[in-house]
Design a protein that fits this description.
By secondary structure, the chain is an alpha/beta fold. Helix content is 37%, strand content 17%. The protein has one domain: Rossmann fold. Helix 1 packs across helix 11 and helix 5 packs across helix 6.
Length: 272
């Protein structure tokens, strides 16, 4: 990977989306990586911000581990633009993370602006990406709070399993608190159902339950449980690089096109 060159001008129509759910294993990182790649395949410029100390998004996008990371950006040690790395996928760039990011939550606790570090970093060192996707940790701690304060909207992955909506009410209350204190314009971009197995009757029941809960905010696209989708990160690849003809790849391309339609962006190009 190599560093990314930018004009340094913030796009007026840039959309910052936090992918958040405090439950683990619901497909947050998979969605960030592959929705990002799918948007890039639709001729969009995309920046992925890894705010999860597990660093799965960074390794899954093939980051070598060299150079600054989101820790240095949140600590104010490095401007955002200087910490970005280009991935192998054209149009898709990365602010990587290392495991030292977990220390930022402790180190920033005493700072008055601890919840706004990411928003400040984006504003003081703007990029020219059309989309910014933030991979949040599976918690509602300080790192996720930074993502919500910086974001225009939240996308919520929900696994098609028993108790799928467990914790979603708490997340919605957190969004209300963030709106009241820091970010009054924060919206819900949508809920996307993940890890769907159409052979399981419970999965179909979960789809109905989630769509009743979220209404028109729920995406029509459903991400299937797919072996190729699970394999791709271990090779440092998105599913579009690993197997573009797989059901997982086609689902994320469909999700990207649905998101572009919602945003009124019509330059989507079907791939594969």
């Amino acid at each position: 990977m190599f560093h990314v060159k930018h004009s340094g001008e913030l796009l007026k129509n840039q959309r910052v989306i936090a992918i958040a759910n405090q439950k683990g294993g619901v497909g947050k990182t998979t969605t960030v990586m592959n929705l990002g790649a799918a948007l890039a395949a639709c001729e969009q410029t995309v920046l992925v911000l890894d705010l999860d100390p597990q660093c799965n998004c960074s390794s899954g996008l093939g980051w070598s581990g060299d150079g600054p990371s989101s820790y240095e950006v949140l600590e104010g040690l490095v401007p955002m633009r200087e910490a970005l790395a280009a991935t192998r996928f054209p149009g898709l760039d990365l602010l990587p993370a290392r495991r030292d990011l977990v220390g930022a939550e402790v180190e920033l606790l005493g700072e008055s602006d601890r919840s706004e570090r990411l928003r400040q970093a984006l504003a003081s060192s703007p990029t020219d990406h059309r989309w910014v996707l933030i991979d949040c940790p599976p918690s509602l701690g300080l790192l996720t709070l930074n993502a919500l304060v910086a974001a225009d909207a939240v996308l919520i992955p929900i696994q098609c399993e028993y108790f799928a909506l467990e914790g979603v009410s708490e997340l919605m209350r957190t969004l209300d608190r963030v709106r009241a204190a820091w970010n009054p314009e924060l919206a819900v971009e949508g809920a996307v159902l993940t890890l769907y197995d159409d052979r399981v009757s419970l999965a179909r029941q979960v789809v109905d339950e989630v769509r009743r809960f979220f209404g028109e905010v729920a995406f029509a696209t459903i991400i299937p449980r797919n072996v190729r989708l699970a394999e791709a990160p271990s090779f440092g690849k998105t599913i579009l690089e690993y197997d573009i003809r797989s059901r997982g790849a086609q689902a994320y391309l469909s999700l990207a096109e649905e998101l572009l339609r919602r945003r009124g962006t019509h330059e989507a190009v079907r791939v594969g």
